Amino acid sequence: MHATFPLGQIFPLATGRANSAQISARNRASDTVAPGQTGVRDENSPLSLEALPPEPVFVHRVTYPLTSLGYASPAWFIYPGIAQTFATQKGMPLTTVADLATAVDRSRGILELKNDFDGEGSPGYSSVTWKNAIGVLTELWSRAVSEGLGGFAMPRISPGPSGSIDLYWRTEAFTVLVNIPPNTEGGATFYARAAGGTEVEGSLDAESYRTVLAILKTE
Amino acid sequence: MIGNFPVEEIPGRHRVFHRVHRAFMEGDEILPGAFRDSGNDPMSVDWEKYSTAEQTRQRARKPPENAVVSVRSGVIQAMPELKLGHEPLSDNRAHCRVYGEKTAKVRIKLVEAAQVEIRIST
Predict the structure, then answer these.
(1) What is the pLDDT of residue B53?
(2) In which element (H, E) is residue A158 found?
(3) What is the ipTM of this complex?
(4) What gap in Å lies between CA B92 and CA B88, rounded to an integer?
(5) Which of A5, A51, A61, A73 has the fewest CB atoms within 10 Å, i.e. the most exposed one?
C-alpha cells in the first residue's frame, strides 16, 4: 500500500542553513506522489542531479517509496553544509554523518558511466537507480540511528551488473552486498555474512533491514 | 564441436581469465560488479589452456582500461548456481561461458575466489 506523502524539493541555501520552519513550509508546498508512482522525478525535473550544486550546502528531505518494501520510507539527504546541525539534532557523532555525505557525494561518478562504457555493451547507470540506491543507504542509516545502533561503516557505492548499483561492505567482521536493480525493476536484494558464520540472502524488506543492520554492527 | 574446435572438459584445477573494466576495480580490489553477464549473453571467460591473461586483455575493445582476474574453474564448478561451459569461438579457442544468475551471493563468492592477474594500466 502506498501512502500519499510530500516529496521534498531541493533548496540551495546561500548560507548553508535553513530553519525547520522554512523546510516544513517548502515541503508543504511541494508535490505529492500518487499511489503506484515512485518518488523520483524524471531527469528534467527540479530533482534532477544536474540541478544539484557541485558543493551541496543544503538539506533535502525527500521520501522515497521503495517499491520493493511496499511502503514509503523516509530518507534524509545530508550534505556537508548542514551536517553539524543534523548531527546535533540526532545526537550522532559528526564523523558518521559526514561519512554518509561523503559516500553519497563520491558515488555520483557512477552516473558518468554511459551505455557501453566498458566496450562490452553494459548499460549505463540512471539517476533513478542512483537515487534508489542512496534511498536504501539512508534508510539503513536512519534505522541504525532510530534503533540506537549508531552509525556504521560506509559502503562502497559501486556499479553493479546490468545498470544496477551495489552497496558493498567488506571488513574482517562481515561482508554485505546490497544490489539495487536498474530503475524500478523489482526490489533490492542482498547477501550478508558475518565472520562467525551467519549467512543470509534474499530480498530487502522490512524484516531483512534488521538482519542487515545486525550484521553491519558485527565487530 | 563448435566452429573448428572441439568442446572439452575443463579440469577444476585450471584457471579461467576474466576481463574487468576499470569501473569495477578499486585499486587492486575487485568489486562485485565485475562478475556479470554480457548483455543477453552469459559471462565470458577464457580458459588458461588456450589463452594467457594478456591475450584475454587484448581482446577488449580498449585493453588499457581493463584488468584481468583469474578464478579456478573448480570454484565455479562447485557453485550449484553456476555452470561453466567451454564454448570456443572461431577466433578464440579458450572462450567459455559461465551460466547462471549472478546473485549477490554468487558475486561475493567469485570476488573472494578471484586473483588479479593484470592490473589496470596507469
Answers:
(1) 98
(2) strand A156-159
(3) 0.94
(4) 6
(5) A51
